[in-house]
Each structure stands twice: as C-alpha cells, then as structure tokens.
Amino acid sequence: MSRTEIVDGPRPKHVQLRDILRRLAEQELPPGAAIPSERDLARQYGVSRITVRAAVGQLVAEGLLTRAKGRGTFTARRRMDVQLYLESFTDDMRRRGLLPATDVVECVEEVPPTEVSVALGLTPHEPAYRLVRLRRADGVPLAVERGWYNPRLVPDLTAHDLSESLYTLLADTYGVQLDHAGQTVWAEGSDVDTARLLGVRTGSPLLVFRRLTGSQGRPVEDMTSWYRGDLYQVTMQLDRTVPESGPTSAKGGTS
C-alpha cells in the first residue's frame, strides 16, 4: 500500500485517511482484497483506532469496503451495470468477459396465478411452465429467476436442457424470437429462500425486475428476477421526451 502522510491541519485526520483508503480500494487493490487491520492502519499512519474506525466505517457505508465478521475488511466487488435492452444473461455475461453458469432449481408444469394467466393470455386453470433458475457469473451467485412460460408456444419445455441460454433455445428449437418486452423495476429485501440461493443474508437489498416478454405480439414469458443489490446497478439515458403511458423498456441479462 502506498504511503501518504496524515498531517495536522484543517482537514480532520479521519477524512484524510478515508481518502487514502478510497484510493486504495478504487485504484490499487482488486475486488475482494483485504485491507490492513485497524491496528496496522493506526500504526502506519500514526492515528488512533477510533480515527481508523471512522474512516473505514464511512467507506463501508459508501459500498467501497465490506466487513466480514471474524475475517476483516475487504474491498467490495464492483457493481455490474445493467443497460436497458433485450439480451440474454448468457450473452451479457460473455460480452463482459465473465463465465456464465445456470443452476436449474425447478421446472414444473402447473396452473399459474390469475395475474400470470392473464399476462400470458391463457384460459382459467390452463397450466403453464414454471421455471426457477440461479444465475452465476464467474461462479458468483448473481440472480434468482422465477418465470412462467406459455405452453402454447413452447410445448414440452421441461424436456430440454434449461441450464444454457433460454432465449437461444426458444429461437433455435421453437422458432420463437423474442422481440419486445415491458418491465417494472423495484427494490426489496431478500426473503429466506432467495437469500439462501444467492448466498446473502435475509433482508439483504435486491433489485427486482418483472418482465413480460413477447414475440410477434404473442406473450411468451412472465419473468421476475431478483438481482443482488451489492453487485448490480442500473444506468438509464434520459431526455425530456414525455413517455407514452404503459411499460416500454426491456432489461438485458436475464434468460
């Protein structure tokens, strides 16, 4: 770690140390690397451990550092940026230079809730395919997907390997090229089951995307995805155009 002096003056020492540690986390250490202990930092920079604790605490609050009980303090993983366009998770991760992987948690045929039946254009009590998958990037659990699929357009979906790109399967096997989607995004705390799959604590912040996707005007997919809030962020380009009513955007990086 580069050595920078902390001096007496108008800037508080904890602010000077915070800036030093910020440069360390952003420019010198890779994500997931340990920073020196409170004792080592206090000795190296000639400050009290209270000063160290204040500086580190601010960076933890900003999301640049993360504490692991009994292990120390580490640089946080960088958040991946979500662009709002229709692209498969597999293609998105490969484009980023990451290795995508998918665990199929469950795939069954059953009657969906009324809201889903309406969204997919099904008759009451008509079954659909319910698919639950865990998505990973370079081995790190990133998202849990729980989706419903229209059996009229994708019959015998359960007979296929669903651990690869679902969008590629739909296009190559069923001739269904997804071309439009409406999406709603919100934040919520992780429930017990989702936290277990993602390897986070119950109540951890998640970004949630519910997306209704179709092909040539026909509804195909009703998918809700829970993404880790510590690893994902959304960027949008804005202008002063007044939008039309109703959902219009689609998120990349799902199926």
TrEMBL record:
GO MF annotations, alphabetized: DNA binding; DNA-binding transcription factor activity
Domain of life: Bacteria
Cleaved signal peptide residues: none
GO biological process: negative regulation of DNA-templated transcription
Organism: Saccharothrix violaceirubra
SMART domains assigned: HTH_GNTR, UTRA
Family annotation (InterPro entries): Bact_HTH_transcr_reg, Chorismate_lyase_/UTRA_dom_sf, Tscrpt_reg_HTH_GntR, UTRA, WH-like_DNA-bd_sf, WH_DNA-bd_sf
A Pfam family per the record: UTRA
HTH gntR-type domain mapped to chain residues: 11-78
RNA-binding keyword on record: no
UniProt name for this protein: GntR family transcriptional regulator
Keyword Cytoplasm: no
Record key words, sorted: DNA-binding, Transcription, Transcription regulation
